[in-house]
Amino acid sequence: MEFDFAEEQPKFLMLMYGLIAFVAVVGGLLLLLDVVPAWFARRREAQLVAASASGAPLPRRRKQREGAFALFFLLPTLLLLTVGLVVPAIRTTLLSFMDGGSNNWVGLRNYGWMFSEDSIVRVLVNTLIWVLLVPLVATAFGLIYAVLVDKARFEAVAKSLIFLPMAISFVGASIIWKFVYAYRGEGDQIGLLNQIVVSLGGEPKQWLLESPLNTLLLIVIMVWIQAGFAMVVLSAAIKAIPADIVEAARLDGVSPWQMFWQITMPSIRPALIVVVVTLSIATLKVFDIVRTSTNGNYDTSVIANEMYNQAFRYGQNGQGSALAVFLFILVIPVVIYQIRNLRQQREG
User: Cβ-count burial of 317 within 10 angstroms (0-12 exposed, 13-18 middle, 19+ buried)?
Assistant: First the structure.
């Protein structure tokens, strides 16, 4: 198959225009954010020098001018949030009340379909399983890692190895674990899990085809990736525990188990909450692992994957949008809880 540059020229031109627009917008914003503050700083410095030379009182900053200055810096962020988040959220909500072709209003029919269709109910149950298991298991493993490697001889190396999966994309990690779960009939296996089973005298299985075991095996991939994140955050929290508290507990003769439950756990509670909340939000939106490993087949689909299928594969924009809105509603309480928790920590 030969590559015809003439036929592909419009695509290259479109790519070039996009790159030029990106450089112009980003470069313009960076230049603006560099020039404008520098101009205000020079102007303020000149006013202070003039007031000092003349003996006049120093000019005071006007609150209105400061508010306008702050608004100027917030405008790009507000614009991007409006275009990239607010407008799509409103449009998706409206589409969730329309039919598959986005032509007619159907009210709450799409939401009723979501809870009455057996396959979609299974998707919701799978998502619930993910949200219940991944944050708790990943946080537990991260905490165990953080406690075990704390002040160990090769702590930096151990942490690097544990954190390494975080550097791999979800798609890459899923491909790696697909090889681990791979099945090749009888005889030698290329999949690590099946080879271990055969070595122990068992029969190889097609692990990703057996429900609900396949969902748990996909959860293992997510835990493997996120345990490193939990370990890093919790390890930092453990190291931040005041040394005098630890020494006082040791002088009182507490056992390592009592030290963990009575000193370490209460001290790192805010970090634990942050890790669990962060992993809960990431788990609710999980898509890549399911899409790459099973494509959502064999009762493994989750909300994000089914949302994609309904909207882009089956052409059911209304049902896909309803799933997206439902996912958004699930995330909101977690975000509100995290905001309140951070506010309480700041006030405390």
Answer: buried
